[in-house]
Amino acid sequence: MEIERKYLIADLSDVPGQITDYPFSDMEQGYLNTTPVVRVRKSDEEYYLTYKGSGMMVREEYNLPLTKEAYDHLVKKADGIRIQKRRYRIPLEGELLCELDVFHGAYEGLLLAEVEFPTEEKANAFLPPAWFGEEVTYDSRYHNSNMSLRGETK
Q1: Which of 30, 86, 108, 134 could form a disulfide with 75 if both were Cys (CB 3.0 to 4.6 A apart)?
Q2: First vs last C-alpha separation in the chain
Q3: Looking at residue 48, what is its pLDDT?
Q4: Which of these is catalytic: 7, 31, 88, 142?
Q5: 31 assigned to active site
């Protein structure tokens, strides 16, 4: 089960400290299906096939490892554009983690923060830090699967 809230970030200078001090992964992902979501992702040198059920803040999610060869084969079958981003992992209070996606390609300049939670109650009680912008958890335009079909959010 995935329980997460999403927020826009106005500018990298809003992030505490230096963004380059945080660990990151470079990602590319393509969508084989959007209802339900079936995605293939390359994260640095790791490869996954992911299934996501319906929902906005809470939904089923299953990840299966792939080989590079399987990823290369499947990503060619993806619909729409490939999403390209660098994901920074920024610790938050309460042992939470912000995954800050800095998009490239068709979404160059988009900054989207995701915070995952162990329970729905903790997600609902979360007070975002001051550097988070507008919450877009319930805005389907910011689901990567929808972004892959549209090509832009602006």
Answers
A1: 30
A2: 30
A3: 98
A4: 31
A5: yes
